[in-house]
Input
Amino acid sequence: MIKKRSLLIGASGLIGGKILKILNAQNENIILFSRHSINLESNNIKEYLVDFNNLEKIKDVPQIDHVYISLGTRLEVSELLYIKKKDRKEFSRVDLDLVLNSAKKAFSLGARSIAIVSAIGANSLSKNLYLKTKGILEEEIKKIGYEKVVIAQPGHLLGARPEEKLRIEITIMEFITKILEPLMIGPIKPFRSIEATNVADTMVRSIQDGVNGVFTLRFDDFNKD
Output
């Protein structure tokens, strides 16, 4: 049986790193597009150091089957509500342009199924720049031509973030939301915090289940056995 080959973009991040561990444990063929080397020793992994502003220059990449994209700007808690004008162009460049261009490149390399990390509340008509950008991205990804699109819409992600110092505002927010969690029911339940491991595992299982279509994953999906 021929093993599937997956492209992973964003392996140095919280969810991307967990996806990488899952795929490697499954002995799947993995290709990484990275800005800086992750230095993981595994016969399953082939890493390409790339300039995400010039993806068209990437050559000699074997055909792939699936792509997972977990790219995004690392924002302060306050920036989820309001991104300063001076930072908006760079935010859009990373969270929209780079992700969309990466998805198009993966499609050109043969991928026909894609899983991306978005955010709960994503809406292209939102007045909130963060949620609007995520909503526009989702709509544009669906237009590329993938047979299967998996969109993960988690709330706040729980887990140790690679190479990140302790952020007191995150600790405070997680403490408060933990207290309020029993009250977050009905339409606001999807906004609960969620373990990044659960998100990564659900994304991989969703890509590998063999069913085509467009699938949006939220809190309850991430907590299924």
